[in-house]
Design goal:
Layout lengths: L1 E8 L2 E12 L13 E13 L7 H6 L21 E10 L3 E7 L19 E6 L3 E6 L1 E3 L15 E10 L2 E10 L4 E3 L6 E4 L3 E14 L6 H9 L14 E2 L5 E2 L1
Antiparallel strand pairs: 1-2, 2-3, 3-8, 4-5, 4-13, 6-7, 7-9, 9-10, 10-13, 11-12, 14-15
Amino acid sequence: MSTELALVHGDGRLRVIFYHAPVWEKGVEPNTCPPQGLKVYRATVCREALRPLPPTRSNEQDHPPTEGNPTFNRPVPPFAWHANWSGTSWTWGETRGDEGWKLDEMDELDSWHGRPTGDTANTWNLRLPGGVLIQCPRIIRASEGSDEDGGLNGMAELMRVAWLPTNDRLLRLEASVLAMDRPILDPNDGAIVGFQPPRLGSLRTDVVRKVGELEGVSLLERERKRKDGEANEEELVKPGREEMEDDTVWE
């Protein structure tokens, strides 16, 4: 299974392709039964631009992109992802179709771009120079419970791409994919012999701009509050020291 996601900003485009291959549980001989899951084995990241030369590091140094166009090869510090973002969101779903939203702010739960390792242990992730973050499931498991229609109750898995084309602009794309949830049954004995192709469950695209810094999270702000006497002593932790319940301090 391959899943392709793409984001566009100015004359540049970021295209990501996730590849998942059939796998079987340990101890099960491959091809003796339908695959029991799909495991990520490759990811392709394409940086493309409508320019006379490819957007390589040397070409961007010799011919810097014009204003409003992305610089693909630039350092982006980790804290650049953590800010107040505001903009618009577009969603698509099988039941409600296309919908547009206005994002005045992002809450902590929605700010998945600030959690590079993902929300579960099953998340495979990669963060690249130029402000690129990609996430996908390590393994998509075949469902085991049958539903009333004789199919399987599949669980949607999330494929995510976040991109900082400039220091004050954030683009995000999140696709919900359903796979291995609709079996193909043998007409004679009803055994599962395969699965219908994967399908898109929902899609969300966010285009937001930085409108300010997060409050109460930076070290500089906490240090300033400490000097002003506003910080609570219980919230201050000295690095390299661990306090135990019996007040013993271990280095």
